Amino acid sequence: MGKCMDTLVDKLMATGNLETEELKELLKFRNAETTEYLNQKACMVRQSTKGNKVQIWGRIPISSYCKYDCKMCGIRRDNQFAKRFRMDAELILECCNDFAKKGVRNFLLESGDDVYYTEKRIEELLLMIQKAMGDCNVILSLGEKSQAAYMSWYNSGARSYLLRHGSANEQHFRKVYPSNMSLLLRKQNLWQLQKIGYRTGTGFLIGIPYQTLDNVVEDIQFIKSFEASVIDMGAFIPVPRTPFERERSGNGEMTLYIMAILRLMLPGASVLANPSLDCVLRDGRIKAFSGGADVLVADLEEDTIMSSYNVYERKNGRLFLPLDQVGNMKAQIEGMGLRVL
């Protein structure tokens, strides 16, 4: 039995922050007792800010092309074995309709940093979706773009944008991202998005190579100081034919633990339970709701598209995960006393 660090959790809940050494202690000495207590408080905060309401975001991977060569990513530019595709507007709209039939009207359009999707193309796509779907919410995750593009897409109806900062430490950033990427530029993009008015999301991977405890603390503190509106966390998953393919996966339990910490730090933020959690922890997404998450990110049921969009391997150990069944997942969440919007 470990000692519950309830004093630190209570301070975090009361003030929304901890001193650096206190945060290190909370992370370094994680145990079952503290995790249970932290999760209880995270759920209390979610209840006070969101009621018992949660959302489902339908993830639509519109492209598997990317101009960057990140060392952990399955669709990295130099991966000659990656299956490449781009969805046309009609297919994207068809995917939105498929989700809508399942009661999902929040559409997360995600891609690599693909230069094909210009300011004009995305603007036209957003207007088409709004016209066809009516009352819906479109979230974008398309990489680093110009301020003019961000402004155009906001004016065309997009209200949320996800852009993980990856690592808030310059030295660590250089070890895992290619030389033509810049941490300063990534942060500038985040600030631009926030200034325009987007509900801006960021995050990082737990257990990515070369990551230290100090790096994790710095990442958490950056998310807090940025006052992110959306928390997009994940665990590192080694992907074949990448420089990190032989590395160990990140810890799923630690990922959920940090998500609960961030719920206490940023009570009004949306905390995402994304598909990668299920690759490192059985029922990882569903378990995230026991620690304060309020958004389930669900994948398409179409096997052809999802098998091509190989950002990470859809597997848990040696077992491949089935494609998402939105109805079943909704029932599981509602069985926890939550109401899916």
Description:
The protein has 341 residues and is of the alpha/beta class. It has a single domain (6-340), classed as Alpha-Beta Barrel (TIM Barrel), CATH 3.20.20. 43% of the residues lie in helices and 14% in strands. The chain is built from 14 helices and 13 strands. The strands form three sheets. The protein has an eight-stranded parallel barrel. Strand 3, helix 6 and strand 4 form a beta-alpha-beta unit. The longest helix has 19 residues, at 32-50. It is globular.
Name of the CATH homologous superfamily = Aldolase class I
In CATH, the architecture is: Alpha-Beta Barrel
Subunit arrangement of the protein: single chain
H-E order: HHHEHEHEHEHHEEHEEHEHHEHEEHE
Largest beta-sheet characterization: 8 strands, parallel, barrel
Number of helices: 14
The residue ranges in which pLDDT falls below 50 over 5 or more consecutive positions are none
Rg estimate, integer Å? 19 Å
Could you name the CATH topology? Answer: TIM Barrel
What fraction strand? 5-15%
Helix and strand content put the structural class at: alpha/beta
| Gap from first CA to last CA | 39 Å
Write the layout of secondary structure elements.
Blueprint: H1 6-15, H2 20-28, H3 32-50, E1 53-63, H4 89-101, E2 106-111, H5 119-133, E3 137-141, H6 147-155, E4 160-162, H7 170-176, H8 183-196, E5 199-202, E6 205-206, H9 213-226, E7 230-231, E8 234-235, H10 252-265, E9 270-273, H11 277-280, H12 284-288, E10 295-298, H13 303-308, E11 315-316, E12 319-320, H14 326-334, E13 339-340
Parallel strand pairs: 1-2, 1-10, 1-13, 2-3, 3-4, 4-5, 5-7, 6-8, 7-9, 9-10
Antiparallel strand pairs: 11-12
